[in-house]
Amino acid sequence: MKTCPECSEKIVGREDKKFCSDSCRNAYNNKINKDTTNFMRNVNNKLRKNYRILSELNTDGKSKARRDKMINKGFDFDFFTNILHTKTGNTYYFLYDQGYRSLDNDYFMLVKKEI
Please, which domain of life does this record's source organism belong to (predicted)? Predict the structure, then answer.
């Protein structure tokens, strides 16, 4: 007899059923997928916020933005997911598919990577 990994109740139904109910399935998955520390949660929140700001400023897939405008919206330049160095010597900082690189006069080129 199989039991639910969340509440240990007996499972009734299909042979491959793993949980007794949707609420147990959701509770179990929320438990194993939650950020385990405040540090992780804070970093993930900053990455999400930076991504939202870039998406908001870069609606056309390629645009420019001033540093002060990005900072005023709460952008934190210390948090990004990866760096791309091009053959021409440019360095792009990406948050998933949204990226930016520094230009002259406190401007940034905003780009969206086609996935």
Answer: Bacteria
Block residue for tokens 């086609």: 114
CB contact set of 85 (below 8 Å; sequence gap of 6+):
91
pTM over 0.85: no
CA pair distance 92, 5, nearest whole angstrom: 44
Question: In 3D, which of 71, 72, 59, 65 has the Cα closest to residue 100?
Answer: 65
d(CA 18, CA 5): 8
| β-bridge pairing 98-102 and 91-95 | antiparallel
**Token pair for residue 17?**
């059923």
Closest CA to 49 of 83, 79, 11: 79
Q: What is residue 112's predicted lDDT score, i.e. its pLDDT?
A: 95
pLDDT for 35 equals: 67
> What pLDDT does 31 receive?
87
